[in-house]
Records
---
Amino acid sequence: MSRPSSPSSPSGSPPSEPAVARDSATVVLVRDTHDDHRPAGVEVFLQRRVRSMAFAAGMTVFPGGGVDRRDADASVGWAGPPPSRWAEWFSCSEPLARALVCAVVREAFEESGVLLAGTETRVVADTGEYADARAALVSGELSLARFLTEAGLCVRADLLRPWANWITPEQEPRRYDARFFVAALPEGQQADGATTEAESARWQRPGDAIADAEAGRATLMPPTWHTLAEIGRFPSSAEVLACERTIRPITPRLVQDGDRIVVELS
């Protein structure tokens, strides 16, 4: 599978010592559509990154970001599949698996206001009371573990499902080892675009997001494009979450093809 890359993407052979890929976590938030004028289906939450960002500037992406060292705090409250299970799914160590799940919960809250947390019997329905904590998480003044402990909450790992593992091409100077998760929007919560990293945000059907990219109205990185195509095949968010995945690392290759650069997926 090949997709045109962005004009600024580097070409040629990978450097002799590629940059180390930083561990990161991405969440594909899904919800069922409620449009009386169109067939039922799934929508995903997408953000267009501001053009001043060092990575993926101007791209349309899912919420996510790098793992913080504090995301591995073993004191965090937890409900759902344990870190050992996530380690099996993502073929990584248990401490890293814990950090990845915590990172995706933190990033989802920071970037979209969606909080995948609660008590063991209840998921948070109204996140308004945690607005100050959200700001403190963004600034780094507060860790996820401390926030959840003080709020009497725990990570709800049962709301998440593993989806994919994408690694930035070796030619890129800034690289990420990104684990993709999917999660349904919790009942009562709202996703927003209240983050300095995005200039806009919206819920959109995967097929419509791809059509925007094909028409030049948006720019998608290969992992986003590929994931949209996969999610778009499902008629409901419940079926997305029920999909059993075998996670294998995917590292796209940037290849010169005449006067353009294409991305090859093995």
Note: The longest strand covers residues 22-32.
---
Amino acid sequence: MNAKEKTKHILRVIGEMFPDAHCELNHSNPFELTIAVLLSAQCTDETVNKVTADLFQKYRSPEDYLAVPQSELEQDIRRIGLFRNKAANIQKLCRMVIDEYGGELPQGHEDLTRLPGVGRKTANVVVSNAFGVPAIAVDTHVERVSKRLGLAKSDDSVLEVEKKLMKLVPRDQWTDTHHRLIFFGRYHCKAQNPQCPLCPLLDLCREGKVRMKPAANRQANGIKKKLNSKG
């Protein structure tokens, strides 16, 4: 099958596996989502949600984050990795939102990436989930799955992976595909212990086939031993 057919097959399979895939970061508005995604860098969504449960009660607007010393905000998010840098970026972000955008989070992708701590991935998550603009955010799960399934090359950069997915996936499916690839990578095609024996896409996964060879060899050797013992 060609690249388009292969992609269509992959999307159908992961769509059947995770039809309800969604953003797992708890938030009630675009501003909270931006803060949550910023905090999620090198941190699990589960930990972020535990922290933001209290954080979003205490801080409801950009002004709230600027009303306290940075040291206090650091303590509020200290369970998050790189909490000092993230606290500094949050306050810088809030200052820019107030000074340059009238206190309202900008909706444009380019404007979002100007905010401290907000890179391309974060902006993609925000525009797609908060503002309904199709986008594919490439996090560690999306990158890993895309490369394992041959949708991208093993040495492709994150940006190259994103561009290839945008070409292969119909635009109206970008956001759903982003969520489903994340769920597939987070709950099935894990970094350390992927569920290769149960994977319906194993025939497309070069790494999965390599992982399965030792198991296949062990099974074959076991059969040989049984046959030899009977002989």
Note: Residues 29 and 150 are 36 Å apart (CA to CA).
